[in-house]
Amino acid sequence: MIQASDRTRLNIAGRAVIVWLILIAAEILHGIARGVFLVPRVGEVRSSQIGVFTGSIIIVTVALVFVRWIGTSKTAGLLGVGVLWLGLTLSFEILFGRFVVGASWERLAADHNLLEGGLLKGGRTEAPASRTRLPDGIGSLVELESVIAEIARQKDERAKATVRELLDEQLPVTCDDTTAGLTVETVQPGRFTGQVIRDGERIVYASLPATKKWLADNKWQTAKAFAI
Fold it and tell me: Which long-range contacts (CB under 8 A, 24 or more apart) does 102-106 make?
């Protein structure tokens, strides 16, 4: 038989989970608003830094609104609710990052490494190993400008090389159906996934979005518009 004290703890835990769901929904809307309104104006890094503070305000506000409804006013109970929220949030972020975004376990471990400020996403920028680093021994602004210009040129060349490589890539496909002279083919997951419809040898329709994993691994590669 469940005693009254156990029932009370279960009620508190259940209400804490409901409030956590509200927190997650609020943070998702907060992230969408940040991407729509802040990122185009101040950039990703600065908007993330601002988001740390606005997100904290949202969390504190929701907690203050629902703390009495949760049903505990003791310090131990409130700490327990906080630990529960922390565990749920970390689990949500890791599972979402791995199975929805497609991030690697190594990337997720780095993002949540407290010793490297991993949880303060707006406080640091990630530099992939292949990104060009500033050399030592720069002695003047003129040299610095020259180095930055060279880095920008190399960055453009890497992005162009990636596009050229994608254009030459042979996509593995499987034939799904043939109807009225039209052949429907499915592109196997790799860098791209989707469908192609052919009329004989002529492609009449193609939908080939890049996979989430490939986009996550190459999101830092950018270049000005160019023609091949």
Answer: 102/211, 102/212, 102/213, 102/216, 103/213, 103/216
Residue 84: other Cβ atoms inside 10 A: 16
In whole angstroms, what is the distance from residue 97 CA to residue 88 CA? Answer: 14
Do 116 and 158 lie in a common domain? no
Q: Are residues 97 and 32 in the same domain?
A: yes
How many angstroms from the chain centroid is the CA of residue 211? 13
For each of the chain's 228 residues, which pLDDT tens digit applies? 445 566 788 899 999 999 999 999 999 999 899 888 888 888 777 888 888 899 999 999 999 999 999 998 889 999 999 999 999 999 998 888 888 877 778 777 777 776 655 554 444 444 444 455 666 677 778 788 887 888 778 777 877 777 777 777 677 778 878 877 888 888 876 777 788 888 887 888 888 777 777 767 666 556 566 565
**Total tally of structural domains belonging to the chain:** 2
CA-CA distance, 19 to 68, in Å (whole number)?
11
Q: Which 8-state DSSP code applies to residue 227?
A: -
Helices (H), the chain: 4-33, 39-42, 44-70, 75-96, 105-111, 141-168, 212-218
Is 228 a member of any domain? no
- Does residue 181 share a domain with residue 101? no
Please check whether residues 113 and 147 belong to one and the same domain.
Answer: no
Rg (CA), the chain: 25
pTM of this structure:
0.51
Is there a single domain that holds both residue 112 and residue 160? no
